[in-house]
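Folds abound. A case:
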Amino acid sequence: MGIVEEVEAKIEALKLRLPELEGKANKRERTQVNKDIYALENDEAYVAAKKGEMQATRAETAAADDAAHATKLQQEAEAEAARAAAAEAAAAKRAAEGPAKVEDDGEVHMEKATSKKGDESTWPANGDMVGLTYTGVFADGTSHQGVDYSGQQFDSTWDSKAK
């Protein structure tokens, strides 16, 4: 049995005596028991051993925290690598599909090219905020009042100085 266990057993034994020493008749003996408890709790060897235990516990806790942090960093790195691989695979798939298809809506004589981004498994819900970028260019053969506008840019979210 180490010094810590030995001293703590003595302190417990003394504390168990205190309830039976209640009252005026046992005041001196109760005072002596409290002094003995105080002396045991402040014994230099006991205090040093207790500090050593606390330092060992702190070191173990710190090592466990470091290990948990390293594991978390490893998991985050693996997740990032998986995301990068998924993005690369999606980019390769888009490259294999070729450029976006051009559609004619048949009403306003406008062509639109749709490009899909994201993981193609989640979609915005009704009420979600979405972003859009575009460049408006007149189609080939577009003219008005004798002026040919073919291929000229008329609007863009990228360029505030559209013609």
Notes: The longest strand covers residues 153-156. Strands lie at 102-104, 111-113, 135-137, 143-144, 147-148, 153-156.
